[in-house]
């Protein structure tokens, strides 16, 4: 899956990023879209809501 992601990124001319960087993008994106904090934490598989904040 990661190879496919990198291949698609390369084909699109985007810089190569780590898969973990997507998590750092997803969290604030969900919160700015008013996804409830517990739901965002569960989606990111955080052990506690306090990790998400």
Structural commentary:
The model has no long low-confidence stretch (mean pLDDT 91). The chain is elongated. It has a domain at 18-53. With 53 residues, the chain is mostly helical. It has helices spanning 2-11, 19-32, 37-43, 49-52. 66% of the residues lie in helices and 0% in strands. Keywords: DNA recombination. This is Tyrosine-type recombinase/integrase. It comes from Actinokineospora xionganensis. Residues 3-52 form the Tyr recombinase domain.
Number of helices: 4
Strand content bin: under 5%
How many β-strand runs?
0
Largest sheet: none
Give the % helix: 55-70%
Question: What structural class results from the helix and strand content?
Answer: mainly alpha
Rounded to an integer in angstroms, the radius of gyration calculated over CA atoms is 13 Å
Low-confidence stretches: none
Overall, the morphology is elongated
Q: Return the average pLDDT rounded to an integer.
A: 91
- The first-to-last residue Cα distance is 29 Å
Q: N-to-C SSE series?
A: HHHH
């Amino acid at each position: 899956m990661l190879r496919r992601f990198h291949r698609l990124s390369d084909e699109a001319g985007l810089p190569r990023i780590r898969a973990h960087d997507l998590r750092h993008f997803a969290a604030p994106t969900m919160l700015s879209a008013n996804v409830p904090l517990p739901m965002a934490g569960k989606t990111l598989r955080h052990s506690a809501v306090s990790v998400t904040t």
